[in-house]
Amino acid sequence: MSTFNGTYYQPQFFLLSGIPGLEVSRIWISIPLGIMYVIAILGNSIIIHIMHKNPSLHEPQYVFLSLLAATDIGMAASTLPTVLNVFLLNHRRIEFHGCLAQMFFIHTFSSMESAILLAMAFDRFVAICNPLRYTVVLTHSRIIQMGLAAVARGVALMAPLPILLKRLPFCKNIILTHSFCFHPDVMKLACASIRVNIIYGLALILCSFGVDSVFVVLSYTLILKTVLGIASREGRLKALNTCVSHIVTVLIFYVPLIALALIHRIGKYHSPLPHVTMSNIFLFLTPVLNPLVYSVKTKQIRRALRRLFVLKVG
């Protein structure tokens, strides 16, 4: 490590941690983690493949689902190298700039996922509340623009994070509490004031995840109002059924995210276990459960999957 003002350091590397109290079981923990990564990457890749190969699935809601699957692959790929290194090989070192890069991609893909979930809520809003204008409002060019906007917003908002961390001096403590680099975890190791980092991190949550979640709730409030106005019970159930998969996906993403934000900013724990557990749930389960939810709840995807595997077996 290089010295900074004699007492502070710009570390060459950080040391990652596994799950507190379960260090001796790291090999056994690596098995379910490895399975989860296979499901996340393979499951989301299959979703993208069947969307691409089936013209009947080129509707806006399935295009958004493809974008969501691609983002889930990015989230899984961002954490995979260090997580498996820690649990499988007990290789805990991560180079300083590599840590900042991993942190940037983790937070960027999280922001992109939030934006895509908002776009999917808007898709359901237009489909149910204004179905006659559905194909006019959600054209393929507009969907591409929304996808590019999600990427641009994620990159623009998260790019300052590594810059703000790089300007800080660090002490001799270089041990992170996660098996990957997470902004709140890294900034707490700094020796100088992290007020700017805290304020910017809070602003990020409010301007991206906070705004997105508010508009998602607003969309579903208007959807529910429209659905309740449908005369027949069958019609109401049919309309709501088209939203079930997305609602479950939104809950899978936002509930752990809100809990994680509250734990990091409000909770005071002697053990890092609550932080580690909630961050692992947020980053690991979301890419795993999303393709499973849509595969189980969406009839068109189930049919496409059956055709795909029948052809493979044949």
TrEMBL record:
Topology of this chain in the membrane: Multi-pass membrane protein
Subcellular location: Cell membrane; Membrane
Biological process terms in GO annotation: cellular response to lipid
Keywords assigned by UniProt, alphabetized: Cell membrane, G-protein coupled receptor, Membrane, Olfaction, Receptor, Sensory transduction, Transducer, Transmembrane, Transmembrane helix
Listed transmembrane segments: 27-50, 62-88, 100-122, 143-165, 198-223, 244-264, 276-296
Domain G-protein coupled receptors family 1 profile: 43-294
Main location: membrane
Gene Ontology cellular component terms for the protein in this record: plasma membrane
Matches recorded under InterPro entries: GPCR_Rhodpsn, GPCR_Rhodpsn_7TM, Olfact_rcpt, OR51/52/56-like
GO molecular function, a single term: olfactory receptor activity
SMART domains in alphabetical order: 7TM_GPCR_Srsx
Pfam family, one: 7tm_4
Function in brief: Putative odorant or sperm cell receptor.
Family that this chain belongs to: Belongs to the G-protein coupled receptor 1 family.
Protein name, as recorded: Olfactory receptor
Species this chain originates from: Ursus maritimus (Polar bear)
Gene name linked to the record: LOC103681235
